[in-house]
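Preliminary data (for renewal application), manganese (II) ion complex.
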Amino acid sequence: MNTPDPQVHAAALAAEPDSTPAGVAVIYTALPESTQVATLATLMDTVASYLGEEDQRRIRDAYRFGDEAHLGQFRSSGEPYISHPIAVAEICAGWKLDAESIMAALLHDTVEDTSVSKQDVHERFGSQVSEIVDGLSKLDRVSIDSREARQAESFRKMLLAMARDARVILIKLADRLHNMRTIEVLPPAKRRRIAVETLQVYAPIASRLGLYTLYRELLDLSFRAAYPKRFEVLSKAVRAARGNRRETIARVYADVQKALPKAGVNAKVFAREKALYSIYQKMRLKRLPFSKVYDVYGVRIIVETVLDCYKALGALHMTFKPIPGRFKDYIALGKENGYQSLHTSLMGPSNMPIEFQIRTEEMQRIAESGVAAHWLYKSEGEDFSDLQKLAHSWLKTLIDIEHNTGDPLEFMDHVKVDLFPDEVYVFTPVGDIRSLPRHATALDFAYSVHTDVGNKAVGARINGAPARLNEALSSGDVVEILTSENAHPQPVWLSYVRSGKARSEIRHFLKTMRYDESVALGRRLFQQALASLGIDANAVDSEMAERSARDSGAADLLSLYAEIGIGKRLAPLEARSLALLARGKPEAARIMPRLAPVLIRGDERSAVTYASCCSPIPGDQIIGHLRGGHGLTLHRNRCKTALRQRERDADRFIDVDWSDRLEGVFRTRIELSVTAGRGTLGKVAAEIAASDANISDVAMHEQGKDGHLEFVIEVRDRTHLAQLLRNLRRLPDVHTVSRV
Ligand code: MN
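Predicted structure:
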């Protein structure tokens, strides 16, 4: 049997020994009065404690490189700029990050702020360091300033998605910590903006990583910088309460020390205090005065076994009066994020409420060090990427909740970790953030904006450059969608999209729009087939037509038309069965004078597809291919693809022609050879627009002085196209123009 012996352990955080009873370790969140200034010497001391000589040499080399790059630059405080990267590197070294991370920390602002390029860093320090520095430079370019607070969550996710290497995030946090520690020198407005961003974005990320010390320091530094008066008032209140409680804490501690051994429990006892900002948040959100915030003071008890947790709970409940409704058993009802602990609030001496957390060493390890433990204290022989994978899978098991308001005593309850989500985050032109599944395209984005935007999309601009609808998006892209009234979803779009919303909207459109259009097309095809048998469809008895449809297995005549329209049934066969019926009742049908082709008006929408191999437009000789389930596809008469298909599938080719009454515009492709150079594309595009044609896609290849442009354009007919080609040939930099 063990001799119960409560032990006291020193906490790593800044303590205020004069306000605490001897022997009690208190985890305070009070900000350190001053931080020792980091120098190359202090950095190298820290580094030497865990890295070998070769690594130290490389780190010194990175320092020299960074020092030279930043030469002549100064911080707002007047110090040479290099003091900042050194401080950031020292914070990272305190976390025992690997040599690449320390080097990247020293170089983190070189690519963004000096003439050094990513390539320079790559050549001198290798791909790992240059990739990390590149990741950091990218993060530097996004800032939340103009974005609204409701977007903070998306913003955090976006940062994580952009930084695919955990080291990038850790260094970014160290960077932010040092900037917050030295924020005093900035003007108030800027101070406040950075502080709010830290509260909304960076502190929650630190908490997700389990970097609790950092999390608390970021919270309180930001609180002080953003709301200096409130910070002052609240710290005075806490200081006063702390003075009063000096004696109380000592008595609680003594009582716990007596009670636990009596219950046969071997325990370590810690006292702790809530972060100022968390107290402030709780007062604000729950509209409480300071005196009603119960969990300002807490005691954590670490025991050996799960059974000990409950024994300790029993012992405490016999020693202090429980506050009703404040007990939570996160051991029996484990949280999905892996957190386990018993929480209970008890009334201490002098009616001071105290929150107790009781847990085993193992539970403590998960709750306190979280993910960071995997990264920061890796053991020999473990590779960083293995650890990252491990951490990643661990993170994946953690739950998702709406708000992480940041209560350090309880925040594991709320930990929300989706580090490196399988999503991309992009901006709308006005700066709203949208999240889309990874590999999502411009078309997914269009549907995320609005169903109509998706349905009418013809092209996109990504970061200002023209892009196709199936272009994949990356986090941070600014995306704009070009629409046209004549556009509508195409079946091929289903292969462009990744998001469920886009997929179902496209399906929905194709299905409903298609039905009406298919009926109309099917009716025309059916009438044409009847005509070729010498029957005038308009003179067919409608009852007989219905019966014939049902005889051949369709629900009714309209369904029969629809099925013909989408190519599930062949019009000539259906016409023949009607003809057989009609032969028995000659009075029900009348002989047609001539065979008529199906007339295309251009408003058939999804029932008619214009083959992309030959892009027929009015004026071209055309043939129609009725493909099962796809409706009617139009080809130019001499299209090689069509001729090849016709050999195999002659039954499904039908006569078509253009109607006299055409609707809308038609797509076709043209190619130009031009003199390469700035402005040529613009001139050509302007001429196309001036000729009253639309551009729906463009591709450009340049080879030396020669440029090749390919446009998908929308024109009314062949005459319009011919006019356009003539206009283009007149341009000075254009050598040849032709239809593809
Ligand atoms: Mn920096």
